[in-house]
Amino acid sequence: MAETEDPIARFSAWLAEAEQSEPNNPNAVAVASSDANGMPNVRMVLLKAVDALGFVFYTNLGSAKGAELQANPQAALCFHWKSLGRQVRVQGAVEEVSGAEADAYFASRAKDSQIGAWASRQSQALPDRFALEKAVARYGAKYALSKVPRPEFWSGFRVLPQRLEFWQERPFRLHERLVFIRDGDAWRTEKLFP
Q1: Which of 14, 30, 45, 67 lies at a 20 to 30 A Cα distance from 24?
Q2: What was the pLDDT predicted at 4?
Q3: What class, spelled out in words, does domain 7-98+153-192 have in CATH?
């Protein structure tokens, strides 16, 4: 692939290639945040959009990640595509997506996933599996004959990239590392030793 000075275009090209080679969820990404004590916390989510503004994923705002990102709006992302020997790391500030964006994405989800968003009190203690199944049944009945509205506690976050690193595996661990660093409205690049 020819080098580009636009890291979002570069990322989009790599993601498109991963969509052809990764067996499951090429849009899976590890999201790192930190709690009130500065303890790092990382988990996998699915990237749902990427554009010139940033990288978007959705969650329950009351979840650990939701609470952490609202309290300390900074995050790191890590995509790893083993089949391609590639990794992309992203660091930046975080903002909540607009209500209209969250509504549009929520409306595109399968109805069972919409019901699941209402039923799950993500990251809270679950007394037993039956409690979850009962909540799913309750919201399933409530919205059986109507559209499922987006819960006010469910939205998305956009990571506004300040730094992106593209890593390409090479023989003998002599990997290629290309970093894009935001410099005002432009990007500057540097190569790193592996």
Answers
A1: 67
A2: 52
A3: mainly beta
Query: With contact defined as beta carbons under 8 Å apart, do 161 and 92 qualify?
Result: yes
Per-residue pLDDT tens over the stretch 33-67 = 999 999 999 999 999 999 999 999 999 999 999 99
> Does residue 173 carry a catalytic annotation?
yes
> Of the listed 10, 173, 177, 182, which one is catalytic?
173
Q: How far apart are CA 109 and CA 68, in angstroms?
A: 25
Global pTM value: 0.93
Other beta carbons less than 10 A from residue 151's beta carbon: 18
What is the C-alpha separation between 129 and 179, in angstroms, rounded? 45
Residue pointed to by tokens 């300040």 = 162
pLDDT for residue 2 is more than 50: no
**Cβ-based burial of 16 (10 A; exposed 0-12, middle 13-18, buried ≥19):** exposed
Nearest residue to 81 via CA among 190, 167, 146: 167
Residue 19 confidence (pLDDT) above 90: yes
Q: pLDDT for 58-96, tens place per residue? A: 999 999 999 999 999 999 999 999 999 999 999 999 999
Cβ-proximal residues to 16 (8 Å cutoff; 6+ apart), any chain: none
Residue 186 to residue 125: CA distance in whole angstroms: 45
What tokens were used for 105?
């994405």
